[in-house]
Write a structure and sequence with these properties.
heterotrimer; A mainly alpha (about 120); B mainly alpha (about 220); C mainly alpha (about 550); A: about 120 residues; mainly alpha; about 65% helix; about 0% strand; flat; disordered N terminus; C: mainly alpha; Cytochrome C Oxidase, Chain A; 16 helices; globular
Chain lengths: ~120, ~220, ~550
């Protein structure tokens, strides 16, 4: 551990902050506006895409992750990955309950697949 | 271990560390680890939400239409502004500005945070209470999909409620930061408490970004 | 280990300043930020909670000597097993090694002065005792009868017991453990001494690091789950309520997402202790260091993807059951790696049988049995028969008590001289260890049999044909209780009357053994610089206590 009292935090220009801010505001306007257009099942996809983009802007610039160490990035990714595990494996039960009485064994696969789609 | 005035460490240095760089790295890592716990904490509710939205989509659409997009959107704008002001507060400390400037941005952040809570309480939750769509407290809904709508409203209040609690905690943290700044604790060499509080504040903003999209905009408004 | 030369002929402990006598008075303890004192504060608290959980168990076993219940009404019995489970899991086992030995040893083993966030560490303890207080209030108000698993809709709609208070106690204690885990992760990442690279760390540190990852990733989920349960109970409506489309199984998913990794929180630190004990008492470096290190991480990661094996018979989809069953078999692999590597370490070692080693050897045998019986439960078809029976109870007690608790006792004994500066009487300790081993097997082995034969768990009464095995189990429990009480006596005795320990009474490798016993507040007289791997037997630093292993008897 070298001895230096100053910190080496990267200073982000004000202009960057303002640009990110404007992008976030635009994204909010966009997602609100798109909600009033009928895109069927794509409404959800668009809304989530915009939300994730806004999140990335906040994380990278406001939370300085663009200038952060690899350890920070691994920590963040791990958090989201674990959330993904929780959602995925819970869905693997909650969304696959098919209780039709039918022939045993592999015959049960077909109603399950049909149920999903 | 006396005569600290003579050593190289600035005020705010904690002696379990070797130097300020190590201290800053440790506090940043610590806050990120804490935010990971918050991802999983809110994540439990997001998981439940995902399941029920999939299983009861029409009810969730009906319930979502009970919410007013204009308030959700306004609150989103408010929080985004507060993230900007928070980032500017930290930047002021980082670049050695006068403490008055740092406090200015911090107080502006607090005002925006309080505005968020005020709008929510007065124009959303209070009105929901009057309209009888608060599960367990004031429930008089007799429109379509009543059980599923009640489920949706449970999610709405639980998720925005826990979020609001985090906002209140954030206001408390900001108050402490204002006091610390007024007492000249911060400098370009030592501003980690501001930085890590900023991480927390931005995280709470991100949660709201997703809550807005998932609670207010389900199934479109066409 | 250290490049500095230190005088091994210590001054007598009383005339040397150490962390115990540096400050006096209750305020110096209640406001301490010294990780070693905080470890002792936890030690006292969890010992107290262990006695409470143990009393509940004693009452249960007393009741079960007769098929119609000898002592308790069924409603009271339900409160007993719930109290026993909640207290033992959340207020004893989860904090046990991390908060006591972890707090005490981690900074010392990595060569640091303290943890990364000492004040947060103290706050963790205060949160923990607040959680304990809420739990005690709930117990004194009659106790909950939901089981430690709090399943709705019984816990949310039908139980007339202080569920919210108890859940609040668990919530607060959980928050305490999150902060402890966070503190440990940052400490291990950022505060290692110069030269202490990751692969020179003692395996105890790897185990606690993996445990801390589970604290951080898993505990928040049970926090929100209990919070949601509390809301549902208070509002009489909520997201687990079938009346509005809710699914009680969703609670189970969220609950077990934490509670399965929690069982690895309870066993991993013990495995870390065993790695230290096996190497010290075979005077040999661990066989396959990196395999053991990575196996801790693998256990932590895989532990998060197997939770559905607790729900095979509760209504989970068969497809999810298949997935969770296969994944559950996976988690046995890193555990087996550890057992093989410990055994290989013993081979051609210079083995001695002091009490800590007896506990470690007991751990290996009993954990293996517990782990193997888990395979029957991970397999879908056999689990249908065995779930909800005493087979499950025996399985997890072999791991939690035969494994985790014995590792904890072994660790307490091993590091006792470092913590207190005193030696305990090892003869008594060995007798107690044997009594624990015998009592344990007598208590829990019959439960495998009686469970296989169909006796359900969580029942106050049972069919008469199971009585002999139940009486055997209850008799074993009383032997086990004696085995636990004996160390309480001689360890307390040793604090005042035990002979002084030197720096390294066991002649063990590790930075913690290079510093005086008890250590000074800042841990090291000279900040260490590390130049060698862990377990580099034979170590250069001489043993400095005449009754160290291989010499005479105590």
């Amino acid at each position: 551990m070298s001895e230096h009292s100053g910190d080496t935090g990267h200073v982000v220009p004000v202009s960057t902050y303002v640009l990110v801010f404007l992008a976030l505001m635009a994204g909010t306007a966009l997602t609100t506006g798109v909600a009033y257009i009928d895109l069927g099942r794509w409404n959800t996809v668009v809304a989530l895409t915009i939300a994730v983009t806004k999140m990335m802007l906040v994380v990278l610039f406001f939370m300085h992750v663009k200038y952060a160490t690899g350890l920070t990035r691994i920590v963040i990714l791990a958090g989201f990955f674990w959330l993904g595990i929780m959602i995925t494996l819970t869905c693997s039960d909650e969304l696959t309950r098919v209780w039709e009485i039918n022939s045993a064994g592999w015959g049960g696969i077909i109603p399950f697949l049909l149920h999903l789609f | 271990m006396a005569a600290h005035g003579a050593d190289k460490h600035p005020p705010g240095f904690a002696h379990q560390f070797e130097d300020m760089a190590q201290q800053k790295e440790a506090s940043t890592l610590g806050m990120w680890a804490f935010l990971v716990t918050e991802i999983l904490f809110f994540g439990g509710m997001f998981t439940a939400y995902t399941i029920y939205r999939e299983l009861h989509f029409e009810s969730f659409v009906t319930g979502s239409h009970l919410l007013e997009v204009k308030f959700g959107a306004t609150n989103t704008y408010v929080l985004i502004c507060s993230s900007l002001t928070m980032a500017l507060a930290i930047r002021s400390a980082q670049t050695g500005k006068r403490k008055g400037q740092i406090i200015f941005w911090l107080i502006l952040t607090m005002i925006l945070g309080a505005l968020f809570l005020g709008l929510k309480l007065r124009f959303e939750w209070y009105r929901d209470y009057v309209d009888g769509i608060v599960p367990g407290i004031s429930w008089a809904y007799n429109g379509p999909h009543a059980p599923g709508v009640q489920m949706f409203m449970c999610f709405y209040f639980f998720m925005t409620g826990v979020h609001a609690l985090h906002m209140v905690a954030g206001l408390g943290i900001l108050t402490v930061l204002v006091i610390m700044t007024a007492r000249n604790k911060f400098s370009p060499e030592y501003y980690a408490p501001l930085e890590i509080s900023g991480l927390y504040w931005h995280f709470v903003d991100i949660v709201w970004i997703f809550l807005f999209a998932l609670l207010y905009l389900i199934g479109g408004r066409y | 280990m250290s490049t500095a030369t230190v005088d091994i002929h210590d001054h007598p402990a009383e005339s040397r300043v150490n962390y115990l006598n540096a400050n006096y008075g209750i305020k110096s303890w209640l406001l301490t930020t010294d990780h070693k004192r905080i470890g002792l504060l936890y030690l006292g608290t969890i010992t107290f909670m262990f006695l409470i959980g143990g009393t509940a168990a004693a009452l249960m076993r007393l009741n079960l000597v007769e098929p119609q219940g000898a002592l308790l009404e069924p409603e009271t019995y339900n409160k007993m097993f719930s109290t026993h489970g909640i207290v033992m899991v959340f207020f004893f086992l989860v904090p046990s090694i991390p908060a006591t030995l972890g707090n005490f040893l981690i900074p010392m083993m990595i060569g640091a002065r303290d943890v990364a966030f000492p004040k947060l560490n103290l706050m963790s303890w205060y949160l923990f005792i607040t959680g304990c207080a809420f739990a005690l209030v709930a117990i004194l108000s009659g106790g909950v009868d939901t089981g430690w698993t709090f399943y709705p809709p019984y816990s949310s709609l039908y139980s007339h017991t202080p569920v919210v208070i108890m859940a609040l106690g668990v919530f607060i204690a959980g928050f305490s453990s999150i902060l402890t885990g966070l503190n440990f992760v940052v400490t291990i990442h950022k505060m290692r001494a110069p030269g202490m690279t990751w692969f020179r760390l003692p395996l105890f540190i790897w185990a606690l690091y993996a445990t801390s990852l589970i604290f951080i990733l898993g505990t928040p989920v049970i926090a929100i789950t209990l919070f949601l349960l509390g809301l549902e109970r208070l509002l009489h409506v909520g997201i687990f309520d079938p009346a509005i489309g809710g699914d009680p199984l969703l609670f189970q998913h969220l609950f077990w997402f934490y509670s399965h990794p929690a069982v690895y929180i309870m066993i991993l630190p013990s495995m870390g202790v065993v790695s230290e004990l096996i190497t010290a008492f075979s005077r040999k470096k661990i066989f396959g260091y990196s395999f053991v290190a990575f196996s801790s991480l693998a256990i932590a990661v895989i532990s998060f993807i197997v939770w559905g094996h607790h729900m095979f018979v509760t209504g989970q989809s068969i497809y999810a059951g298949l997935v969770f069953s296969v994944l559950s078999f996976l988690v046995a692999i890193p555990s087996a790696v550890k057992v093989f590597n410990w055994t290989a370490t013993l081979y051609k070692g210079s083995i001695s049988y002091q009490a800590p080693m007896l506990y470690a050897l007991g751990f290996i045998g009993l954990f293996t049995m517990g782990g193997l019986t888990g395979l029957f439960l991970a397999s879908l078809a056999t689990d249908v028969h065995l779930n909800g029976t005493y087979f499950v109870v025996a399985h997890f007690h072999y791991i939690m008590v035969g494994g985790a608790l014995m590792g904890y006792l072994g660790g307490i004994h091993f590091w006792w001289p470092k913590i207190t500066g005193r030696l305990y009487p090892d003869m008594w300790a060995r007798v107690a260890a044997v009594i624990v081993f015998v009592g344990f097997n007598l208590t829990f082995f019959p439960q495998f049999i009686v469970g296989y034969l169909g006796m359900p768990r969580r029942y106050a009464v049972y069919p008469a044909e199971f009585q002999v095995l139940n009486v055997m189990s209850s008799a074993g429990a009383s032997v086990l209780a004696v085995g636990y009480i004996i160390p309480l006596v001689y360890l307390t005795w040793s604090m005042r009357y035990g002979p002084e320990a030197g720096r390294n009474p066991w002649g063990a490798a590790g930075l913690e053994w290079t510093t005086p016993s008890p250590p000074p507040t800042e841990n090291f007289e000279v900040p260490p610089i590390v130049t060698e791997d862990a377990y580099n037997y034979p170590i250069k630093q001489p043993r400095d206590y005449p009754n160290a292993p291989g010499v005479a008897r105590v």
